Amino acid sequence: PNGTAVINNSNRRQVDILSAGPGAICYDYLVSDCWAAEVTAGRGTEGQAVEVFTGCTMSIYSTVGGALTAARAGTKATVAIAICPATYNEELTWPNNSGTLTQVDLIGLGGSPATSGGAGGVIIGKSAAGDGIVTTTNPCAMTAKNMVIRGATRSIKWTSGINWRVQCELVRFTEIVDTNAFVECVFDRCFFEEAV
Asked: What values do phi and psi take at 113, rounded to 5?
């Protein structure tokens, strides 16, 4: 389900997630660019555990890369990372499948990138001198939903690895997507501005 995550003004350690649909919302990680200001002000820490109204606990980060690093070091096979609307100007090195982690689900909260070009939604990847997502040897499976993945030269850059499973829904790719390592890929209602 898509929704909106908001840091509660009266309790800065509380994150309220408003669902766009029915059901409980439980993610392993929440990424919010405004969390950096809370950390700087001493009101929170990167990776801090927060409890949401559903009773689920998640760790909050100000960068997508921070959440991916924590997921790579964790003990779960599959993790879900909810990403608040913002532009995350970072090149992501995709985790490999060498430990416990086998799949990462990225869920963008906010506007639809396929129709708005990312306005009001989640944009990840470098705008200059870098790529969006770079694969590693034996990469974990990836699902991505409701976001823009950009890069200076490539939205997804294959550097090494084989048998990468990718499933994307409502994702706009602004640059080339290397599909060399894809063994299974599903693109549902995605928009490609460059070659695949």
From this structure: -70, -25
Query: Residue 27's closest CA among 11, 43, 49?
Result: 49
Phi-psi sector, 94: left (phi>0), alpha (psi -120 to 50), beta: beta
pLDDT 10s digits, 32-63: 999 999 999 999 999 999 887 778 889 999 99
40 three-class SS: helix
What whole-number distance in Å separates Cα of residue 33 and Cα of residue 93? 19
Task: Measure CA 176 to chain center.
Answer: 19
Q: What 8-state DSSP symbol labels residue 180?
A: T
pTM equals 0.83
> Distance between CA 11 and CA 161 in Å, rounded?
44
Tokens of 165: 């499973």
Instruction: Give 164's strand partners.
Output: 182
Backbone angles phi, psi at 128, to 5 degrees: -145, 145
